[in-house]
Write a structure and sequence with these properties.
alpha/beta; Aspartate Aminotransferase, domain 1; Aspartate Aminotransferase, domain 2; 2 domains; 14 helices; 14% strand; binds pyridoxal-5'-phosphate
Length: 418
Amino acid sequence: MSISRLAQNLTGSEIIKIAGEINELKKQGQNIANLTIGDFDSNIYPIPAELKQAIVQSYDNNQTNYPPADGVLDLRQSVSEFLKTRYGLEYAANQILISGGSRPLIYGTYLTLVDPGDKVIFPAPSWNNNHYCDLTSASGVMVQTHADNNFMPTADDIRPHVKGATMLALCSPLNPTGTMFRKSDLEAICDVVIEENKSRKAGEKPLYILYDQIYSQLTFGDFEHYDPVSLRPELKDYVVFIDGSSKCFAATGVRVGWGFGPAHIIDNMKAIVGHMGAWAPKAEQVAMAGFLRNAAAVDNFLDNFKQRIRKSLDALYTGFQQLKSEGFPVNAIEPMGAIYLTVQIDIKGKTTPDGKVLNDSADINSYLIKEAKGALVPFSAFGTGHDLTWFRASVGACSLADIEAMIPRVREALAKLK
Ligand SMILES: Cc1ncc(COP(=O)(O)O)c(C=O)c1O
């Protein structure tokens, strides 16, 4: 083939294949509760009104030329203030990098810290680390996590792999699970990294942490967000944070992300992201700078948005708990943060009314799409084995009414199995 080995070897997204099945049924006029995409229906969840007005105003003010490579200074200063007031984190404008959403920052972190062949540790399930390892020819070490720890990694899971590793990629609240680190669990992981770095010789690459906290403003009830640098300040030289506006302001299409970390790493990331040209549009940057400083507007939006997302997650959670109490082989983990619910539908080996045996999570998902008109994403799309019967349900693109209406259909579909 006349294309690069890298392009040939990149694996396609399993979620896109599922989207194909859903679209096929939609074409036939069927109404599917689509819980597959980590996005929002912007008619159900529009961006904050103040942000929208400010973006329009920025275009009216002709903010349409190239932004600086590391982002508009006023936005980097505004992010710096936001980090201080919301997280107690001290990062100056020169330790912050703006890009077109958060993805270029993740890729930029990999390209800045990881050489081909370097070991990168990440939990499974997790979001896209396998693809970033492929893109950078890193040697990915997947650590399988477990339902009894809410699918979050522990120090014991990670410790056996840290020798010689270059990066540990962590995320909390986690996509795909909607679960979060407990303080003591993250502290223990931090201590493993500190111990490992103490054991390394001068001149040797340290073990870095990529800490993706893009969902950190979306936490529910008593669940609190923790980060490695607040828990262990001595890690500050080794942590690159990924954050941004896409999820917390329902602004996935606005494309403003921010990363922060040690100035020399951010400087190198700036050069890499600059060559990619993966900047956030200038008008959106100018608008975001003002919006982040408007604490009342931010709080107002978050209060309302979180309440609505939580209602949808709770409806799904209680729906599955109800089915469980009726004796169906399902389960769900309490929603903690983000826009996701972790659901188990343990019907592997069962036979459908038309005589098909459900052999793996893909079969289960197809059955639910056809019979329950509800679509989830198997954890296998996030790096676990196909035998696991756990799924991600994402509530941002569905109305509460559609979610509530799906539960009786799931009941019927489960009752039909033998
Ligand atoms: C954990 C996590 N990090 C980063 C991103 C990327 O966000 P963006 O749309 O800002 O590129 C996503 C998007 O789904 C995500 O789930």
